[in-house]
């Protein structure tokens, strides 16, 4: 039955801090072996969600199951099956990379080899360097190494690549793909949408404590938000048109204008779609809170952005 | 990394007491190594009693012996007079100050949060801390005795009974100090304020408990206040080991009162254990 149960199951999860509500009924499942990205602006509730699932915070309401257990009551055997990469930490770091990994490997029943993990995060040259002498990005790689040393079935990554240079990020993506090939289930929060697009099978977007979209990356957002945009110059004026059949639009333009100047067809990027989702939700909240209709020019929703030069490629 | 990942069967037996002890032993080595790599704890905790013993012994040498006859003969040297107090202070510093600030820092810098997400038992973590305290405090003690004996010519006791007293006062004292260190680490709200919150009360305790000032010279009410706390009893126990019998006359009631020391330290030890058990959390839960 382990194979059928989802790795993570969250139902109407809520979390309040005093009068402030951080999560208002979030529901999603993560299948075994799946890589799932949690996207959202700062303060939207990503870290609150992930920390509830890691067992660090107690939920205020709703249900949560992680690897078949209630994370609030996860014992040592349960902890041995998960790996956690927290957001940045500032430990004093008077041990070397190898000493730290060797120490942590000892906590797990079936750890990975320390040298393999050091190589996987690309710190072979720094294996005998004390943590405090590492750069921020290198320390982050140690965090990732500590998260995977115990050979977790489920890996939590909370903004794992903050402070990485582009090369380190590519390297990290390779590592995540290799973990995925081994069957590791991964829950990832990130600010980098290209990272979510590269790594995740599905993503959920959280805004103001509410799940506003969920699904495979290439299906997020409304159809309208995904509609390609054709841009061209006509008599020196920039024009654009949203069209689900951009080829036909272009053919029509060519028939009318000959070779159109400045022609481009743009598919809204994940970032456009994401900003549209979050913007629409927050605008909706704000208008409901103030009871005054917002002027259309202030809205950044995709539906409104078909009015000229709002969408950036 | 190529082997397919199997869901490991969770063997409940592999998370038993044997594992807790084995990981505790591994933590002791790790903790002790880290301790000696921190230059600030090395100075303020490890070397502090030796440095203070040296300063006091040298500074007050000109005042002659303690308890000397009017003609200057007899009595004991300043170094011999300060040694028991410095030993007691070392025990307190190695336990309370060291662990109190150390764990408060670890709570605020994310070390405890990280450990709390691993299958490390809390008890193994405690064993690691207490083992580190014992190991570093034994070294500190050895250094203190060597410096007192060879640099300042202090005669160490030769009777086995004295060393037996020394052993139990030391072990009870260090266990109490370590437990109180873990308990007190809960007080500072941040790592930055840890030393500011923990060091001053410990410094005051040292002044009123007969470490820097002769206990017998303090007013009665201050002696009574100090008697509430464990340091006074550790210092008194150590005086009974290292000072001549005649010095018992100036103690409260004119006796060393070792039974009182044992009872006071045991009460603090048990109280500390209860506080640790009730209050220790890997992180401050917010709910």
What's the quick description here?
Chain A is of the alpha/beta class.
Helix content of chain A: 25-40%
Largest interface: A-B, 43 and 36 residues
> What is the CATH class name of the largest domain in chain A?
Alpha Beta
For the record, the count of structural domains of chain B works out to: 1
Our count of domains of chain A comes out at: 2
CATH architecture of the largest domain in chain A: 3-Layer(aba) Sandwich
Low-confidence segments of chain A, given as residue ranges, are: 293-313
- Quote the beta fraction of chain A: 15-25%
Rg of chain A over CA atoms, rounded to whole Å, is 23 Å
| Sheet with most strands of chain A | 6 strands, mixed
Give the overall pLDDT of chain A as a whole number.
Answer: 86
Helix content of chain B: 55-70%
Report the CATH topology name of the largest domain in chain A: Rossmann fold
Structural class of chain A: alpha/beta
Task: Report the CATH superfamily of the largest domain in chain A.
Answer: P-loop containing nucleotide triphosphate hydrolases
> Which strands sit side by side, in order, in the main sheet of chain A?
5-6-7-3-8-9
Terminal Cα span of chain B:
39 Å
Domain ABC transporter (chain A): 8-233
GO cellular component, one term (chain A): plasma membrane
Region (Disordered) (chain A): 286-313
Protein name (chain A): ABC transporter ATP-binding protein
Description:
The complex is a heterodimer of chains A (313) and B (287). Chain A is α/β, with parallel strands linked by helices and 313 residues long. Chain A has 2 domains: 8-219, 3-Layer(aba) Sandwich (Rossmann fold), CATH 3.40.50; 223-306, no CATH class. Chain A contains 10 helices and 12 strands. In chain A, the strands form 3 sheets. In chain A, strands 5-6-7-3-8-9 form a 6-stranded mixed beta sheet, sandwiched between helices. In chain A, strands 2-1-4 form a 3-stranded antiparallel beta sheet, covered by helices on one side. Chain A has a 3-stranded antiparallel beta sheet with strand order 11-10-12, with helices on one face. In chain A, a hairpin with a 2-residue loop joins strand 10 and strand 11 (237-242). The model of chain A is unreliable at 293-313 (pLDDT under 50). Chain B is an all-alpha fold and 287 residues long. Chain B has one domain. Chain B is 68% helix and 0% strand. Chain B has helices at 17-36, 39-59, 78-109, 111-116, 122-151, 160-184, 191-208, 220-227, 230-242, 258-279. The longest helix of chain B has 32 residues, at 78-109. Chain B is elongated, with a radius of gyration of 21 Å. The relative contact order of chain B is 0.13. At the A-B interface, helix 2 and helix 3 of A face helix 1, helix 3 and helix 4 of B.
């Amino acid at each position: 039955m382990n194979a059928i149960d989802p790795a993570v199951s969250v139902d109407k999860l809520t979390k309040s801090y005093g009068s402030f509500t951080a999560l208002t009924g979030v529901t999603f499942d993560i299948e075994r072996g799946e890589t799932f990205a949690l996207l959202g602006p700062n303060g939207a509730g990503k870290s609150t969600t992930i920390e509830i699932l890691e067992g660090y915070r107690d939920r205020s309401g709703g249900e949560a199951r992680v690897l078949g257990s209630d994370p609030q009551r996860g014992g040592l055997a349960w902890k041995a099956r998960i790996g956690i990469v927290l957001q940045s930490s500032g430990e004093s770091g008077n041990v070397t990379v190898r000493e730290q990994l060797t120490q942590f490997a000892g906590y797990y029943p079936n750890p990975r080899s320390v040298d393999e993990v050091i190589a996987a995060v690309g710190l072979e040259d720094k294996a005998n360097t004390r943590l405090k002498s590492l750069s921020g990005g290198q320390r982050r790689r140690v965090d990732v190494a500590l998260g995977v040393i115990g050979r977790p079935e489920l890996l939590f990554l909370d903004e794992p690549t903050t402070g990485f240079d582009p090369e380190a990020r590519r390297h990290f993506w390779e590592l995540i793909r290799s973990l995925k090939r081994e069957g590791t289930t991964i829950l990832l929060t990130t600010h980098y949408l290209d990272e979510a697009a590269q790594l995740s099978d599905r993503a959920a977007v959280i805004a103001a404590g509410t799940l506003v979209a969920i699904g495979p990356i290439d299906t997020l957002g409304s159809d309208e938000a995904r509609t390609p945009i054709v841009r061209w110059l006509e008599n020196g004026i920039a024009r654009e048109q949203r069209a689900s059949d951009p080829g036909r639009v272009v053919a029509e333009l060519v028939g009318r204008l000959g070779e159109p100047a400045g022609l481009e067809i743009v598919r809204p990027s994940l970032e456009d779609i994401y900003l549209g989702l979050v913007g629409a939700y927050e605008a909706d909240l704000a208008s409901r809170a103030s009871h005054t209709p917002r002027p259309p020019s202030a809205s950044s929703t995709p539906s409104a952005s078909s009015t000229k030069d709002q969408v950036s490629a | 990394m190529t082997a397919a990942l199997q869901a490991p069967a969770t063997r409940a037996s592999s998370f038993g007491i044997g594992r807790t002890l084995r990981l505790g032993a591994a933590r002791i080595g790790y903790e002790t190594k880290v301790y000696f790599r921190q230059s600030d704890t090395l100075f303020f905790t490890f070397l502090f009693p030796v440095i203070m013993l040296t300063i006091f012994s040298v500074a007050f040498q000109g005042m002659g012996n303690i308890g000397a006859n009017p003609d200057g003969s007899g009595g004991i040297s300043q170094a011999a007079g300060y040694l028991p107090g410095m030993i007691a202070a070392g025990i307190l510093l190695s336990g309370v100050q060291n662990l109190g600030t150390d764990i408060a820092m670890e709570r605020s810098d994310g070390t405890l949060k990280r450990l709390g997400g691993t299958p490390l038992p809390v008890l193994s973590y405690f064993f690691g801390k207490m083992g580190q305290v014992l190991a570093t405090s034994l070294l500190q003690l050895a250094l203190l005795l060597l410096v007192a004996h060879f640099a300042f010519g202090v005669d160490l006791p030769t009777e086995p009974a004295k060393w037996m007293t020394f052993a139990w006062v030391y072990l009870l004292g260090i266990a109490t100090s370590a437990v109180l260190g873990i308990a007190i680490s809960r007080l500072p709200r941040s790592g930055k304020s840890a030393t500011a919150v923990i060091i001053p009360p410990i410094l005051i305790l040292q002044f009123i408990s007969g470490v820097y000032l002769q206990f017998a010279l303090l007013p009665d009410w201050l002696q009574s206040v100090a008697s509430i706390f464990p340091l006074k009893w550790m210092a008194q126990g150590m005086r009974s080991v290292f000072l001549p019998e005649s010095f018992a006359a100036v103690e409260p009631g004119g006796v060393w009162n070792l039974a009182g020391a044992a009872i006071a330290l045991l009460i603090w030890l048990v109280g500390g254990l209860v506080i640790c058990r009730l209050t220790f959390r890997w992180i401050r839960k917010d709910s």
